[in-house]
Design goal:
Length: 458
């Protein structure tokens, strides 16, 4: 156990208040039995439709937009379908623009993401909403466990996720898992399946982002012999194969619009039709979908159907980025090191309080997957490798990026990196995608997908 970890275990009977989040641990109780609450907040429409109406938060977040699925609905043409989200976190209240058409203006300043204070005025198109803290608090439901399936975590954010996953596992409801890459979405899907009554039935994974659009329909629903060129035999699709079990649709945000319509029908009617067949086959399959995108922003952009989002998001679980829960790093690192099965002597330098403390200070843009890869590299070299910008290669952050809020800057930097990386490899291999993808150790289909995203031609 690291020094930081020990400190958290020993704090007796305290209230920890961070921003809008409060954690209460009864005197002498062990970690795992705390309760948490967040400050309640109020949104008052001061201009626009339903002027004067007041909305009170029942949890830690609220989405605002013109679509009826929002918590606060502003039926006004200049307000996007999912315009923005207000959320209470460790560091206070924030608003985040969901790629709305007219943007979010907080107290006169256009923002992508911004902190809010009591009395802040949010302008969304022609509507204005006032944000205020209320004196009361909303209780957050936390799981008593700090481990679910292969996922571990002691943070409030992770235990709130565990509670939602446990509740979801007890039902057949469709689940939408959201979170940045490497936050544990695939593992969460497996954990829900394993904790459900379907655990002895198949768990089928379809990576919708890695399968070319023209093959995805047949992959999901199967096809009849002769349905298209190359369909030499009849093929059973993932939905039929998963009968009685669970299907995990990874990267659901990548599926093309025509197929979204077909998937919607399956969710509504619980039957599929193989490509090239006129017969409907009933399917008893639990659906769990995952995405690293915010599907609400995809709906705004017209790339994702709002009715499909509605059907998928029966239970929404957002896996937090690792940088939002550094307190989980000691337990996750310990689990990753233990499962690597290395000789305990080699693990010693990777278990010191100084090393763990450095891990906690890093931002981990690739989340737990990056942490795992880094620890694996350390194990190979048998030392704590450089981690931060100070002891690693120098990266200059241009002023155009450092002037932006972190999420926007990160998105642009990653986009730019991806584009240049692909370009360099394509040039090196004279536009031969298969060779470029092989050098990148990347699936060719994924390489093509990234090229399409960045408008690159071979
Ligand atoms: N809380 C956690 N505890 C332990 N291991 C974790 C945790 N979260 C993620 N991992 C590990 O990190 C790796 C990445 O997890 P996973 O593949 O589930 O992420 P993901 O969100 O599905 O990523 P992507 O969106 O890129 O597919 C896996 O090895 C997983 O076991």
């Amino acid at each position: 156990m690291s020094a930081t970890d020990r400190k958290e275990e020993e704090v007796p009977g305290t209230d920890t208040v961070e921003g809008g989040l409060q954690v209460t641990r009864p005197h002498g109780a062990r970690r795992g039995s705390e309760s948490a609450s967040v400050r309640r907040f109020r949104l008052t429409v001061v201009e626009g439709p339903a002027q004067g109406s007041v909305w009170e938060s029942g949890a830690d977040r609220c989405s605002i937009g013109s679509h009826p699925l929002n918590d606060l609905v502003l039926d006004e043409e200049t307000v996007s379908r999912f315009h923005c989200e207000v959320r209470i976190g460790k560091d206070g209240a924030r608003v985040r623009d969901l790629d709305s058409l007219n943007g979010v203006v907080v107290d006169g300043v256009q923002v992508v993401e911004s902190f809010l204070r009591g009395g802040s005025l949010l302008r969304l198109g022609r509507a204005t909403v006032r944000f205020d803290f209320s004196t009361e608090r909303n209780k957050l439901t936390l799981s008593e466990t700090t481990r679910l399936g292969t996922l571990v975590g002691t943070s409030v954010a992770m235990r709130a996720c565990f509670a939602r996953m446990e509740r979801a596992a007890g039902t057949d409801a469709t689940v939408l898992l959201e979170g940045e890459t490497g936050t544990g979405k695939s593992q969460a899907a497996q954990a829900i399946h394993q904790a459900s009554t379907r655990r002895d039935k198949p768990f089928l994974i379809v990576d919708c982002g890695a399968i070319p659009a023209n093959l995805l329909e047949s992959e999901l629903f199967g096809h009849e012999k002769g349905a298209f060129t190359g369909a030499a035999t009849r093929r059973i699709g993932a939905f039929e194969e998963a009968q009685g079990g669970t299907i995990f649709l990874d990267e659901i945000g990548e599926i093309p619009l025509e197929l979204q319509a077909k998937l919607l029908r399956v969710l509504e009617e619980r039957q599929i039709r193989r490509v090239g067949s006129n017969t409907h086959v009933p399917v008893d399959v639990r659906i769990i979908a995952a995405t690293h995108r915010d599907l609400r922003a995809e709906v705004n952009a017209g790339r994702f159907r709002s009715d499909l989002f509605f059907r998928l998001a029966v239970v929404r679980i957002s896996l937090p980025a690792l940088r939002e829960r550094p307190e989980d790093i000691p337990v996750i690192a310990e689990q990753l090191l233990t499962s690597a099965g290395a000789d305990p002597e080699r693990l010693e330098p990777l278990r010191t309080p100084e090393f763990i403390s450095r891990l906690r200070q890093f931002a981990w843009p690739g989340n737990v997957r990056e942490l795992r890869n880094y620890l694996e590299r350390c194990l190979v070299f048998e030392e704590a490798l450089p981690l931060s910008e100070e002891d690693g290669p120098a990266w200059d952050v241009p002023p155009s990026l450092s002037a932006l809020p972190y999420p926007e800057a990160r998105r642009r930097a990653i986009d730019e990196f991806e584009r240049r990386y692909l370009q360099t490899l394509l040039e090196r291999h004279q536009g031969k995608v298969a060779q470029a993808a092989a050098e990148a150790q990347m699936d060719r289909v994924y390489f093509y997908r990234l090229m399409r995203r960045h408008n690159l031609k071979p």
